[in-house]
Amino acid sequence: MTMQSLEDVRRAFKPNLPAVLTAKHHTVAETSRVVSVTTSIRSSFPSTSNMPFIRFEAGEGSDAVRPMRVGAVLSGGPAPGGHNVITGLYDSLKAFHPESRLYGFLNGPSGIVSNDHLLLDDETIARYRNQGGFDMLGSGRTKLETAEQFERVNATAKELELDGIVVIGGDDSNTNAAVMAEWFAANGSPLRVIGVPKTIDGDLKNEDIEVSFGFHTATRLYSELIGNVMKDARSGRKYWHFIRLMGRAASHVTLECALATHPNVVLISEEIFAKNQSLKDIVAYLADVVVARADKGKNYGVVVFPEGIVDNVPMLRSLIEELNDVTTGMDTASPALVTERLAPQSAETYTSLPDVVQEQLLLDRDSHGNIQISRIETEKLLIELLQRELEDRRDYKGSFDPMAHFFGYEGRAGLPSNFDCTYCYGLGVTASALVRGGHTGVMSALKGLHLPAEQWTPLGVPIVSMMHEEIRHGVPKPVIEKALVDLCGANFKRLEAERQAWEVEDKFVCAGPLQFEGATADYAPISVLIDSGCL
Question: Is 201 part of the annotated catalytic residue set?
Fold first, then answer.
């Protein structure tokens, strides 16, 4: 008997395309839509801040005049569907002219600088159709920002005779793309740079980017795990599960998973910040729910929250900001040494934290010089503080047996959902068309994602239109603004209307495994469906 793996079966999946991309088409500059940016952003991007929004029209496409040469790079953490961006790009370039070439730069942006590349062919592409991970090319987080780097990128582009580079990444990676597009435009180079919106965190979104790719698959995988934990909690009836999810700046992953599974408690960073809630407030709320459930004989439950909540509690945010300052330049940092350098209020906050959290706050910094919030085990912090609170509550007669979880890397590289396969393939085809149309400094986009794929609308969105200034290493820098959960938006309002009923009563939904066949297999993320009024 011959057995096929699920990976083999997935390779046979055929994504559909927006109708306009299946016929001859051309790109049109939307002169009626003007990019609105601040004076400082415009001064940083004088050559590309006036790039128009791009739309597509069918019926007037021209036959290929010459083959195209394009480079593609995977940047940042993996997200399900990245390989399909490359396969869509490859198929589109080959359909345009069979002698077109697609080069994949290895190990992220550094591969462009060093001209470390792979010439992609039919055999390689076939192996990675509809597959998870970024292992076709590897990835990296090298920032492209110096003149020396751009000179070397220019040398790579000239050596390979590139018409364009497609950057597949998140907000920082697409900021890289915008800076690179500006450098080439300012230096009179015809090289085109196109971005593609990737991040499982879901915080690269706006009016035109309805969702970043990988978000759907990751949240479905997390929702399956959360549903499994819920079943376990309801079976044993003795454990409280605290589940930390990805999302430092934004809580989109937590919100999507909560809408899919209905946990007893959902903490949203943006809400905590907006309400100026203290750590004591959060713990008191958790204790209220634990006590209320215990009164009904339910000494179990499920709490979900994003990793970034510690950065949104005002006193912890102040502490983290001060820690970033006082530890700068320190060869070694210990809790005792750091406490001496903190202001009295921050020192009090710091010493009140569990020892393990104090140590985690002193771990290596990220590429921006900031504390790596993802390394802080917030679930253990909440558990320890909640245990203290429950011990002080005389009205509490239940038992509290907590379990800590972090669901993060499990969601970044799984086999992509039908939605992400199709969405990413379409983004790749759109990116190819934008390069052929001579556009640069724009992001490949598809709108109308609640509709069947044939009805999606391809666009090119100026990357500069998404930017604001942010302090990096103490200096203001133009970067793509992260999209936070809108507390007035339909998705949060849906959660707000329903979650009180989840606190004491078990409304758990077991999402089950990600489906590749069946009536719901092609659905968009819940948040997209709610935003569009479909759900």
Answer: yes
DSSP state of 198: B
Q: How far apart are CA 19 and CA 317, in angstroms?
A: 48
- The binding site for substrate comprises 199-201, 238-239, 246-248, 307, 409-412
DSSP SS3 for 79: coil
The set of long-range contacts for 144-151, using a CB threshold of 8 Å and a minimum separation of 24, is 144/109, 144/112, 144/113, 144/176, 144/179, 144/180, 145/176, 145/179, 149/113, 150/180, 150/183, 150/184
- Give the span between the Cα atoms of 373 and 471, in whole angstroms: 17
Q: Enumerate helices (H) and strands (E) in the chain, giving the number of each.
A: 20, 15
Convert the pLDDT of each residue in 387-434 to its tens digit. 999 999 988 999 999 999 999 999 999 999 999 999 999 999 999 999
In b/e form, how buried is each residue of 372-390, taking b as 16+ CB within 10 angstroms?
bbbebbbbbbbbbbbeebb
Q: How far is Cα 407 from Cα 223, in angstroms, rounded to an integer? A: 10
**Known binding-site residue numbers for Mg(2+):** 171
Q: Which of 162, 170, 116, 105 has the alpha carbon at shortest distance from 139? A: 105
**Domains of the chain with CATH codes:** 15-214+416-480 (3.40.50.450), 216-410+488-514+523-531 (3.40.50.460)
Q: Using alpha carbons, select from 184, 115, 204, 239 the residue that is nearest to residue 444.
A: 204
Q: Name the β-bridge partners of 477.
A: 470
What's the Cα-to-Cα distance from 117 to each of 106, 112, 178, 331, 399, rounded to whole Å?
5, 8, 22, 37, 58
Local confidence band at 368 (pLDDT 50, 70, 90 cut-offs): low
Count of C-beta atoms within a 10 Å radius of residue 435: 27
Segment 487-499, tens digit of pLDDT? 999 999 999 999 9
Three-class DSSP category at 71: strand
- Catalytic, out of 91, 163, 172, 201: 201
pTM above 0.90, yes or no: yes
Alpha-carbon distance of 184 to 193, in angstroms, equals: 9
In angstroms, the Cα distances linking 49 to 37, 164, 207, 440 are 8, 19, 18, 11
How far, in Å, CA of 497 to CA of 109, rounded? 44
Nearest alpha carbon to residue 434 among 79, 100, 25: 25
355 or 429, greater pLDDT: 429
Indicate the annotated binding residues for diphosphate: 77
Q: Please check the confidence at residue 4 and state whether its pLDDT lies above 70.
A: yes
Residues 6+ apart with CB under 8 A from 153: 112, 113, 144, 165, 180
